Amino acid sequence: MRILHTVEFYHPSIRGAQEVVRQFSERLVTLGHDVTVVTTKLPERNF
User: Fold this and answer.
1) CA dihedral (18, 6, 21, 44) positive or negative
2) Rg for the chain (alpha carbons), in Å?
3) Quick check: pTM over 0.85?
4) Does the pLDDT of residue 46 top 90, yes or no?
5) What is the pLDDT of residues 11-25, one digit of tens each?
6) Binning pLDDT at 50, 70 and 90, where does residue 39 land?
7) CA-based angle 23:24:26, to the nearest 5?
8) By the 8 A CB rule, do 37 and 8 touch?
9) How confident is the model at residue 40 (pLDDT cuts 50, 70, 90)?
10) Rounded Cα gap, residues 37 and 17, in angstroms
11) Which of 19, 3, 20, 1 is closest to 38 using CA atoms?
12) Contact 22, 11 (CB under 8 A)
């Protein structure tokens, strides 16, 4: 299944919603799903 998650900020920003989306997305990937996370662009993020 292809899944799209949206969250205002994401890793390396560690807060409540960001951490929930990160853990949930990573677990779905281990189950074989194709997960994309859409978030705000940050200059310190290189991935």
Assistant:
1) negative
2) 11
3) no
4) no
5) 666 777 888 888 999
6) confident
7) 65
8) no
9) confident
10) 13
11) 3
12) yes
CA distance 2 to 11: 21
What is the full DSSP assignment across the chain?
-EEEEE-S--TTS-SHHHHHHHHHHHHHHHTT-EEEEE----TT---
Q: Which residues contact 3 (CB under 8 A, 6 or more apart)?
A: 25, 28, 33, 34, 35, 36
Torsion of Cα atoms, 17 then 18 then 21 then 23, to 10°: -120
Token pair 């799903």 in the structure block, residue: 33
Parse the chain into domains and list their residue ranges: 2-38
